[in-house]
Design a protein that fits this description.
Order of helices and strands: EEEEHEHHEEEHHHHHEEHEE
Mean pLDDT: 93
Low-confidence stretches: 285-293
Largest sheet: 8 strands, mixed
Helix content: 25-40%
Strand content: 25-35%
Structural class: alpha+beta
CATH topology of the largest domain: Ribosomal Protein S5, domain 2
C-alpha cells in the first residue's frame, strides 16, 4: 500500500452558541453537518521521515508551509506514531476563510490518509492528535451530523443527518477568526439555539429547525466584513426556511424546502458572492474514508 486518497469534506455550523470562556478559550455548543463539498487529498509513502505538502486551487498555493495545518498534521503524525513521511497533494475545492472548516478538513484528511498508509488503527490516539491541531479537526475525521461542545473537541454523533437543500454564498473578503471571537465578547448573547433546533430536527420538523439556525458570531462578523450582512440579506429575500452564517464566516447559507427551490434561488441571485448548491452528508465510517493502492 503506497498511495491513499481521501476526500476531506466541508462542514456547516447549523447553530453556534458561544457559552463563555474557559482558560482563554471560547466554549461552544454547535450543531454541525458535513456537506458534499470536499478537497481531494493524495498521500504517497516516503522512505524517510519528511512530509511535503503541495496545494492546488482556491489560492492555496500561496499558503506558507509553516502556516499550513495539513503540513502540521503530517509532521505531527510522524512524530506521534514513529512512521516514515509522505508526499501529499491537496486539490482544494473548499473556499478558504469561509467558515467551512477547510483547513481542519485537510488536517483531518492528512491524518486519515497517513493512518491508512501506515496501518495505524488506534482511532482514540488519532482523535487526540486531531484535537491538538484545531477545534474542528477531530470532528472532521468522520464528519456527519453531530453536536460539538467545549472548544470543539467534545463530539456527539447524532445519527442520520437532516437532508437539507442549501444555497451557500461566500463573499470575497474573509473574516479574521481571531478578531471575530474577540469582538463577539462585546455583544450580548441571544438565548441558546442548539438544543431547541435539535429537538425540532429529532421531531422531523426541518422547517422549524431552520428558523432556529443561528450563529452567535454573526453580529461580530458582519461588523468586521459588511459583505457578510449583504449576503445574509440577499438570501433572506429569496424566501428560504432559514439563513445562517457558518463558523466565523464569511460563508452564509440558506436552507430551502426542495432542491428545485434551491436551484431557483441560485438562478435569481444577482450579487457578487460565489454561490454553491450543497446537500448535507451522512456520517462516514472510518473504513470508507479511504481509497488505497
Amino acid at each position: 500500500m503506497n498511495t491513499a486518497r481521501v476526500y476531506a469534506q466541508a462542514k456547516l455550523n447549523l447553530t453556534l452558541d458561544v457559552l463563555g470562556t474557559e482558560k482563554g478559550y471560547h466554549m461552544l455548543d454547535s450543531l454541525v453537518c458535513t456537506v458534499d463539498l470536499a478537497d481531494r487529498i493524495v498521500a504517497k509513502k516516503r522512505k524517510d521521515g519528511l512530509v511535503s505538502v503541495t496545494m492546488h486551487g482556491m489560492g492555496s498555493e500561496s499558503i506558507p508551509p509553516e502556516e499550513n495545518n495539513a503540513q502540521r498534521a503530517g509532521e505531527a503524525f510522524v512524530s506521534a506514531f514513529g512512521t516514515c513521511g509522505a508526499d501529499i497533494t491537496i486539490y482544494k475545492n473548499i473556499p478558504i476563510g469561509a467558515g467551512l472548516g477547510g483547513s481542519s478538513a485537510d488536517a483531518a484528511g492528512v491524518l486519515s490518509a497517513m493512518a491508512k498508509l501506515y496501518d495505524v488503527a488506534d482511532f482514540s490516539a488519532l482523535k487526540a492528535l486531531a484535537d491538538s491541531l484545531g477545534s474542528d479537526t477531530g470532528y472532521l475525521l468522520t464528519g456527519g451530523f453531530a453536536r460539538i461542545r467545549g472548544r470543539g473537541e467534545q463530539v456527539e454523533p447524532l445519527g442520520e443527518p437532516p437532508m437539507l437543500n442549501v444555497l451557500l454564498l461566500v463573499p470575497e473578503e474573509r473574516v479574521s477568526t481571531a478578531e471575530c471571537y474577540q469582538k463577539c465578547d462585546t455583544y450580548a448573547k441571544s438565548q441558546p439555539h442548539t438544543e431547541r433546533a435539535l429537538e425540532c430536527l429529532r421531531a422531523g420538523n426541518a422547517e422549524w429547525a431552520a428558523k432556529l439556525f443561528y450563529n452567535d458570531l454573526y453580529p461580530a462578523a458582519k461588523e468586521l466584513v459588511p459583505a457578510v450582512e449583504e449576503a445574509f440579506a440577499d438570501l433572506k429575500h429569496l424566501s428560504p426556511w432559514g439563513v445562517c452564517m457558518t463558523g466565523s464566516g464569511s460563508g452564509v447559507f440558506a436552507v430551502f424546502e426542495t432542491e428545485e427551490l434551491c436551484k431557483w434561488a441560485r438562478s435569481r441571485y444577482r450579487g457578487k458572492c460565489r454561490s454553491y448548491l450543497l446537500k448535507t452528508c451522512k456520517f462516514r465510517e472510518r473504513h470508507s474514508l479511504y481509497s488505497v493502492e
